[in-house]
Amino acid sequence: MQRKSDYHKLIIWQKGKEFVKLIYKITENFPKSETFGLQSQIRRAVISFILNIVEGHRRNASQKEFLRFLDISDSSLVEVEACLEISLDLNYISKEDFELMEKSRRELAVMLISFINKVQANL
Predict the structure, then answer these.
(1) Structural domains of the chain sorted by starting position, each given as residue range(s) with its CATH number in brackets
(2) How far is residue 11's CA from residue 67's CA, in Å, rounded to a whole number?
(3) Are 50 and 69 spatial neighbours (Cβ–Cβ below 8 Å)?
(4) Mean per-residue pLDDT for 31-39?
(5) How many Cα atoms within 13 Å fall on the side-chain side of residue 116?
(6) Quick one: CA dihedral 83, 117, 70, 57, positive or negative?
(7) What is the pLDDT of residues 77-108, one digit of tens each?
(8) What are the two backbone dihedrals, phi and then psi, of residue 49, each rounded to the nearest 5 degrees?
(9) Nearest CA-CA partner of 10 in 72, 65, 62, 73
(10) How far apart are CA 122 and CA 118, in angstroms?
(11) Measured between alpha carbons, how far is 26 from 28 in angstroms, rounded to an integer?
């Protein structure tokens, strides 16, 4: 698969960026005691998700190396899932906010798996 240098054209980047903004907006209301805890962790994980896609896409890397970046991105998305569940359990987010974020996260997970499968098919 020929990768273009412009990651902005990737649908997963566009939707991922919207997901990052959603996470940041909703986690603004976390307790101050979580500034360096769960709030920071969920934000780092969602940023890791999107930036690993960007870095892997922009590098002049082999398909195998690109898959490694996508694997890290997948792991970060699972970390976001766990953080959202914990945030809900601790009542840091409402059920409605959880469902909104989880719906977006699941959509991105499906897109990412499809993207990984496409890259693997070109090995």
Answers:
(1) 7-121 (1.20.1440.60)
(2) 17
(3) no
(4) 95
(5) 16
(6) negative
(7) 999 999 999 999 999 999 999 999 999 999 99
(8) -55, -55
(9) 73
(10) 7
(11) 5
